[in-house]
Structure formats: structure tokens, C-alpha cells
Design a protein that fits this description.
This protein is α+β, with helices and mostly antiparallel strands. It is built from four helices and six strands. The chain has one domain.
């Protein structure tokens, strides 16, 4: 799904509200995850803290009654792009590391990780580490041959 500029602005405005509200509410780092829930029928995007308290919400007009067959996979790159573009703002959040932004469904089940930060490590895409286990197993097997 190629997002329109207006859609990106709506998402970034909601994410900016997260930064503003979290800075105002939390003096010390307490959050560990931020949950983003999108309802494809209404286009509503809700953002919660890890205690399921709503931080903000908005309606993304482009997503109302979306005809995308795999809606969540289609919006994931758009959300990642918006989150990544605000990387400097996330550094100022009162958030304990590791923390992540996750996309959740209506039941609150994680659909995918959008953005994960753990001290010096930043993972933007789950496919980044795809196949790592197999590579490490092969390396260890090769190492133990000697």
C-alpha cells in the first residue's frame, strides 16, 4: 500500500501526541511498549501504553473500509516508516529499554513488531534476523569440526 502524504501526516501527528503526552505524564521511565491498534472498518488508529491505557487516537481516512486483502501487512511498512522518521523523538521518551512499538489486533494480540530498541540495538524489520539461527548453527558445527 502506497500511503498518501495526508495519511503519513495523520499518523505522524498521532505519534507526536504520544511523545507530548508521555513526556507530560511520566517523569521517570516507566513504559516499555507502545501498542498500535488499527481498525480497518473505521480507519481508527488507537495507541496504548503497555498497561492498555489509551494515549491517543485518530482516524486515518485512507484506511476507512479498506479493500486491502491483507490489511495489516499492507499498513505495516507505512507505520514503520512513520515511526522511523521520528527516531530522535523516541530517544526523549520516558521509556525503559528494551522497548518496542507493536501492531496489535482487536483482541490485543501482537500482529507484528514495528520498531524495537534495546540499548545500542535498533531493529526496524523482523526479517533482519531471518535465518540467523541456521547461520549460527552452521558456524558452530564448522567450528567444532576442528
Amino acid at each position: 500500500m502506497e500511503a498518501k502524504q495526508h495519511t503519513i501526516q495523520q499518523i505522524e501527528r498521532a505519534l507526536t501526541k504520544v511523545v507530548t503526552k508521555c513526556r507530560a505524564k511520566y517523569e521517570f521511565p516507566v513504559l516499555t511498549d507502545i501498542h498500535i491498534q488499527v481498525k480497518p472498518d473505521s480507519g481508527e488508529m488507537l495507541i496504548f501504553n503497555d498497561d492498555d491505557e489509551e494515549i491517543t487516537r485518530c482516524v486515518v481516512e485512507e484506511w476507512i473500509n479498506s479493500s486491502e486483502e491483507d490489511f495489516f501487512n499492507a499498513i505495516t511498512p507505512v507505520l514503520r516508516q512513520c515511526i522511523q522518521s521520528m527516531q530522535k523523538e523516541w530517544e526523549t521518551l520516558p521509556v525503559l529499554k528494551p522497548y518496542s512499538f507493536v501492531l496489535v489486533d482487536d483482541e490485543g494480540e501482537i500482529v507484528c513488531d514495528l520498531y524495537l530498541v534495546d540499548d545500542d540495538t535498533l531493529i526496524l524489520d523482523k526479517d533482519l534476523l531471518k535465518g540467523l539461527d541456521e547461520e549460527l548453527d552452521a558456524f558452530l558445527k564448522d567450528l567444532l569440526k576442528d
